[in-house]
Please model this.
Amino acid sequence: MKILVSGGAGFIGSHLVERLLQLDYQVVCLDNFDEYYPASLKRQNIAPALASSQFRLVEGDINDARLITRLFTESFAVVVHLAARAGVRPSIDHPGLYTRVNVQGTIALLEGSRHSNVRHFVFGSSSSVYGVSEDIPFREDSGVLLPASPYGASKLAAEIYCATYHRLYNLPVTCLRFFTVYGPRQRPDMAIHRFVRLIDEERPVPMYGDGSTRRDYTYVDDVVEGIIRAIPRPDGYQIYNFGNSRTVALRDLISTIENALSKSAVISGQPVQPGDVPITYASIERAVQRLGYEPRIDISEGVRRFVEWFRAYRPATPTFVAVNE
Model:
């Protein structure tokens, strides 16, 4: 079976590509190696896959119409669409960019998929679609969703297009809402990665608000295994939460990192940031029952594994300073 993975050189994408190759799938990775964070890190991510005869890397943009047309002359059984412009806070300054990449780019791949008889379109969405919700834990069948950032709005709009393509063209689509995924190769702007670096280098750690905001942190291996379970299950139009279904307060996350590093954090108090939400918390019953999704790694073990990877590889420091969750 041949699978197209967009964004396959990124954090989640590169882990998925490796797992697919282990399972003997043919994998085509489409990635544009944008400079949101150093492209060299993404090239390191994908380097092991390049040695496989089952793997092919295509460098290009999902909004390049000619490239997409050529690419879909191949027969892909499944498209796993993970390419996106990431980051809650940067999206506030650049909403048009997030619309172009996350919405228009998704439409481009949906168009390619429906014209080439793709059997299953798997879309990597986000918990950011829920925004500030009073329906705790967050359920896939929640009513009106009001994202708190342009990033969340772009992901929700892309989900709506996925649903529309299913209704119009009977394209089987599964939307996976990821909850704060972390682990080796995590983007340098994400909270766990940046906090580990700052505490390890004995520099101040920005804590936004009073440290009471809570996140449902999900280890990357658990998410990848969930995607693997979703791929062979095209079932109309489906939405699944992929979280750990446990929340961790920001102050407790910092403490967990301190323990893993055996170092104390120097806290720098900061105001609550635009686009932040007080809590993310996944209801995962649907994914557990229908896909056999089963998160196994708790935050202490996950942070320990991340610190181990960080100390071995020490990825380059990004050129920006925003922390994203």
Summary: The mean pLDDT is 94. Residues 95-115 form the longest helix (21 residues). Residues 149 and 275 are 5 Å apart (CA to CA).
